[in-house]
Specification:
about 160 residues, about 15% strand, alpha+beta
């Protein structure tokens, strides 16, 4: 880290020195040549710590960030699954209370960038085949007409 400090200090010192030297130039006649010389001096000042081997880049922090991002993704996926399960349990309780129980309910949840939870799809297996339409209508009534509700026959279709 001290090598990086040296690099930044060199760049700052050279920038200030170049600005002062440019203001002290008497004529604009040699402006281009002086810019080239100042640019070369600036590059030499920055390249010096790198060429001497004092500047060592440590990419372990970058790999830690990538690992942390993967962990956050896993947490979001777990949270999405848990929220879907909680909504499914709440729907099952509400349907049972209304006398139209479902054998199993699966809810697909999407968590948007604004941390809004949207329910995209709901699949269910009715306990009794005759209740399928009523379950679908009740879920749409509770969660809104834009939710896709579908009756399925097997657990594999719910996944």
């Amino acid at each position: 880290m001290s090598a990086m400090r040296i690099l930044v200090a060199s760049a700052c010192f050279m920038s200030v020195g170049i600005c002062i030297a440019q203001t002290l130039l008497p004529e604009r006649k040699f402006d281009r040549q002086m810019r080239i010389i100042f640019s070369l001096l600036f590059i030499a000042a920055i390249a010096s710590p790198i060429m001497s081997g004092r500047l060592n880049f440590d990419f372990s922090e970058l790999s830690d960030s990538v690992t942390a991002f993967a962990d956050v993704y896993d947490i979001e996926e777990d949270m999405r699954r848990e929220i879907g399960k909680n909504i499914a349990d709440g729907l099952a309780e509400e349907l049972s209370a209304r006398g139209i129980p479902a054998e199993k309910i699966c809810v697909d949840v999407n968590i948007e960038d604004e941390n809004c939870i949207s329910i995209t799809n709901i699949g269910f297996i009715p306990l009794y085949d005759k209740d399928a339409e009523e379950i679908s209508a009740t879920i749409k009534f509770l969660l809104g007409e834009d939710v896709v509700v579908a009756e399925v026959k097997t657990d594999e279709e719910l996944s």
